[in-house]
Structure formats: C-alpha cells, structure tokens
Automatic annotation (TrEMBL):
Organism: Hydatigena taeniaeformis
GO cellular component: cytosol
Protein name in the entry: BACK domain-containing protein
Ranges where the BACK domain occurs: 51-162
PANTHER family named in the record: BTB (POZ) DOMAIN-CONTAINING 2B-RELATED (PTHR45774:SF3), BTB/POZ DOMAIN-CONTAINING (PTHR45774)
The organism's taxonomic lineage, starting at the top: Eukaryota, Metazoa, Spiralia, Lophotrochozoa, Platyhelminthes
GO biological process, one term: neurogenesis
Length: 305
C-alpha cells in the first residue's frame, strides 16, 4: 500500500490492521494525505470486531473523532464488547476509559465479572499469583473504585462480589447497610447507577422502526429525539405505563451498528411518525415517476433520432 502511494499516488486498503500499520508509517514519514486517507478508512470501518484495535489507534495517534466513534459503539454495545475474547488483552487505559463512563449498555455485575477476568490475565502478564487482592492491585485501587458496587443487586452482590474476596470486610458491611437502610456508605464507590444509552434520532438519520405488530417501516427522525423507555436488555416495563401498541424497536442503519433500542412515543410523536411516513412515501412515488419519465424520454428520443 505504501509503495503504491509513493510511486503511483494510489491507495488500496486491505483491512483495519494493515491500515493502522500504514497510518504509523504515514505519520512517521510525513505523508499527510496518506495518513488522512487511512484515518478516514478507519472511521468508516468502526465495528465491534476491531473495536479495541481502533480505539488503541485513536489513542496512539491522537485522533479524537475516531476515539469518539469507538466510544459511541462501546457505549451502545457494551455487553457484546466486553464479552469479546480479546477484551482480556486490552491495555489498562482502554479499560479505565470504559469504567469512567456514566452511560453503558451493560449491568454492573456483568461489568464487574469481565473486569475481574481482565485482572486475572493482568496478574499472569505481571507474573504474580492470581488472588483476589492481587487482581485488585493489578487493576489499581483508583481504577478499582470506578466499579459501582452499591448499584449491584443485593443477591448478586452477596453471591458474586462478596464470595470473590476482592472487597474487605469494612467495605462489605457499609454496602450491605446501604441495601437495607438506603444510607449512602462513606466509600469511594458511586451509588449512582449507570444510565443506559439513549438513541437520539436526528432529522437526517434513516432508521428502521418495528412496532409490536411486526409492521416494518423506514422513518426520518423528528425535530426532537424519541425517548427510549428501556434498553434491549433486562427490560422492565410496567404494562400500565407503556401501551403495547406504541412500544417499538428502533435500530440504527450504517451509523454505529448499535443494538436495537426500545422506546416509547406519545400520541403527538406517533402522529409525527405517521406524517413523516406519508411524506416519505410521496417522495418515493415522485422519484419513481421522475425515473420513469426520464427513461421514457430517452426511449422516445432514440426512436425519433
């Protein structure tokens, strides 16, 4: 790829890993156009499969836009991302970036389990015995404190966290008291649950909407975003709160590959969706009619030429 650019001013990208290597060479030898082309390719190919390579490249080369795209995908797909096989091999700064987020699409207990799995592998890399306290040391106390233990369900805290041995007795008791009394413990662990990502639909975003009756349509976003009632995982929706006929799934197309998000629309927003659908269907009919007229004129012109 580099030789093609140097001698022929041509660029052919063969994959994410190869493009990252080319970007390194382009930065080293000051091929600015090649470097920009590499970054554009990486930004257009942000996906779960290569998410950690891309995020690390964004950090190494100080590419803020690429970093933002990667973090957006991680926030929307946290469960899938942290359960990837290569999650255990990520650098600590990448793991810390995930733990610092206030919005993640995963339950705290699942995040804790995967972080401990990462810490176990970090102990192996540091060539120290894998114990609960060493796992905590491998992660580092300031970063270990980013896990929000008080937000974990009480029975999961008792069966997963306490039995793991990573917390000391003087840390466990205040958290158990918090479950019973609601009084916040004087510990560094946040009691504020992480929010689930809210998908905002802009005026120019094409999305697929599927309602509870399995009716599929394409929708151009309204002037204000739809409200997501719950994530696609662990949905707890009271029946008397959200009418089933207006509970739907919304999935992004060609944006970040994020999972389907559930949302609730009120009567006004539902009417706006229907109005936009009618307008969209009208535009499609006009486009088809224009294409037919253009084809007809071309045929007639060639016939009478």
């Amino acid at each position: 790829m580099k030789q093609q650019y140097i001698y022929y001013d041509e660029m052919v990208f063969t994959g994410v890993a190869g493009t990252i290597r080319t970007l390194y060479a382009a930065r080293k030898y000051c091929f600015y156009d090649l470097g920009r082309a590499c970054v554009n390719y990486l930004e257009n190919n942000v996906c779960i499969e290569h998410i950690f390579k891309l995020l690390q490249a964004a950090l190494d080369f100080h590419e803020d836009r690429l970093k933002t795209l990667c973090m957006r995908l991680i926030i929307n797909n946290t469960f899938e991302v942290i359960h990837r096989e290569d999650f255990k091999d990520v650098k600590k700064d990448v793991l810390v970036m995930i733990l610092e987020q206030d919005v993640l699409n995963v339950r705290e207990i699942e995040l804790f389990d995967r972080v401990m799995h990462w810490a176990e592998n970090e102990c192996d890399r540091l060539k120290i015995t894998v114990t609960a306290m060493n796992q905590r040391i491998a992660l580092g106390n300031p970063y270990f404190n980013l896990i929000r233990f008080p937000t974990i369900l009480s029975h999961e805290f008792a069966t997963h966290v306490v039995e793991s041995g990573v917390l000391k007795t003087d840390e466990i008791i205040p958290i158990l008291q918090y479950y019973i009394t609601g009084r916040k413990p004087s510990l560094p662990y946040s009691c504020q649950s992480r929010r689930r990502p809210c998908l905002e639909v802009g005026p120019l975003d094409n999305v697929s909407v599927t309602y509870s009756d399995q009716t599929e349509m394409t929708f151009v976003g309204p002037t204000r975003p739809l409200r997501r009632a719950a994530s696609h995982r662990d949905i707890h929706v009271p029946v008397n709160v959200l009418p089933s006929q207006q509970l739907g799934l919304i999935c992004e197309r060609q944006r970040s590959g994020s999972p389907p998000a559930r949302f609730h629309v009120d009567d006004e927003e539902f009417s706006l969706i229907q109005e936009n659908m009618r307008h969209l269907q009208h535009l499609v009919r006009e486009r088809n009619q224009f294409a037919w007229c253009k084809m007809h004129m071309a045929v007639m012109s060639s016939h009478y030429r």
